[in-house]
Design brief:
This protein is α+β, with helices and mostly antiparallel strands and 359 residues long. It folds into two domains: 205 residues, Triger factor/SurA peptide-binding fold, CATH 1.10.4030.10; 100 residues, Chitinase A, domain 3. The chain contains twelve helices and eight strands. The strands form two sheets. A four-stranded mixed β-sheet has the order 1-8-2-3. It has a four-stranded antiparallel β-sheet with strand order 5-4-7-6. β2 and β3 form a beta hairpin. α2 runs antiparallel to α3, α3 crosses α4 and α4 packs across α7.
């Protein structure tokens, strides 16, 4: 495979850099932390439900040599051409991760909507007098090139040329992407905060969910009846009480498990090993986790017989684990607030805009 082919994902990313909204990075949130509600993954760019003051006008029929220069939308007197739209769509076709679902017309409308939102943000950046110098573009470009198999900028330029993409246009889009990041940080990110009280409330409301990935270590003794009669079950109960009494007096659990337990773990001293929450039935697990480490449960009857459990240890949200959980909760709550604030801001700037669509 040629360097140009291997560089295609990077080329696509750079070519589309000017039409992608800044999004929350899902890598900021560890995978084991549950997010309440539907699992949305990386949030899609927020969309205004009914953008105001949009004039939807069919285009005139241009000559073939004028097609790419045809204006397909005007955003506050800032034109978007069909050439720009087609360039982004062509890049997306080469990268399935960037390809929106739907037919050709739906895809074109989706990309046009992205362009409109991007232009609105860039216009906001201009109003805020946000600038991006050449050194920033150079640094970002080199950082992206380092993540590929290409050696240097010249190698990258060759890959672009082989795919018919202008190096200047890539730098322009990269500059716009940096500018977008700056304006979003100023208008959205720095206005979002998460308090300790909000973290504690989330922790209290979702402790059970947060503890799902934590483990515990337990042992088990099973005493089975010699038959199905009531007398057999009563005899099994009495034997279980005798074993339980020996444990209260300090007898070794593993030794009694090897001697009396009918469970397959008897040879290992009743050792169930390290379990994750949810591996055992909810009723049995609840009895085990209700114990303090080193404590032995009261006898519990099931269809198999009588059970005695001993909790050896269990992971909990405390110490360093609690500190990590709180940091992860902070990131979850920040993400939720960030998305909400970004959505509000995008709606605000769109409501102030005059948008004319010509396709």
């Amino acid at each position: 495979m040629s360097r140009g082919a291997r560089a295609l994902p990077l080329v696509v990313a750079l070519a589309l850099g000017g039409c992608a909204l800044p999004q929350w990075n899902p890598a900021w949130v560890p995978a084991w932390v549950p997010i309440l509600g539907a699992d949305r993954g990386a949030p899609p760019p927020p969309r205004a439900a009914a953008p105001p003051r949009v004039i939807d006008r069919p285009p005139a029929r241009p000559d073939d040599d004028e097609v790419l220069d045809r204006v397909v939308a005007v955003v506050n007197n800032d034109a978007i051409t069909l050439g720009e739209l087609e360039e982004a769509m062509a890049a997306a076709r080469a990268d399935a991760r960037q390809r929106p679902p739907g037919n050709e017309e739906q895809v074109r409308r989706e990309f046009l909507n992205r362009f409109i939102e991007t232009r609105l943000q860039l216009q906001e950046a201009e109003r805020e007098k946000i600038v991006v110098d050449e050194a920033e573009v150079d640094e970002e470009l080199l950082d992206r090139i380092k993540k590929t198999s290409m050696k240097d900028v010249e190698d990258f330029k060759a890959a672009l040329k082989a795919q018919g993409i202008s190096y200047d246009s890539v730098r322009k889009r990269l500059r716009e992407t940096i500018k977008l990041g700056k304006v979003v940080r100023r208008k959205v990110t720095i206005r979002v905060s998460v308090t300790d009280a909000e973290i504690d409330r989330y922790l209290d409301e979702n402790r059970e969910k947060l503890e799902t990935g934590l483990g515990y270590h337990a042992r088990h003794i099973l005493i089975v009846p010699d038959g199905k009669s009531d007398a057999a079950w009563e005899a099994a109960r009495i034997r279980t009480e005798v074993v339980r009494g020996q444990l209260r007096e300090g007898a070794d659990f593993a030794e009694l498990a090897r001697k009396f337990s009918a469970d397959a773990t008897a040879r290992d001293g009743g050792d169930l090993g390290t379990l994750k929450r949810g591996e055992l039935s909810q009723e049995i697990e609840g009895r085990i986790l209700a114990l303090k480490p080193g404590a032995v449960s009261e006898p519990y009857r099931s269809d198999l017989g009588y059970h005695i459990f001993r909790l050896e240890s269990k992971d909990a949200l405390e110490g360093e684990g609690l500190t990590r959980a709180k940091q992860q909760i902070r990131e979850i709550l920040f993400r939720q607030k960030y998305e909400a604030r970004l959505d509000v801001w995008l709606r605000e700037i769109r409501e102030r805009a005059v948008i004319e669509v010509r396709m």
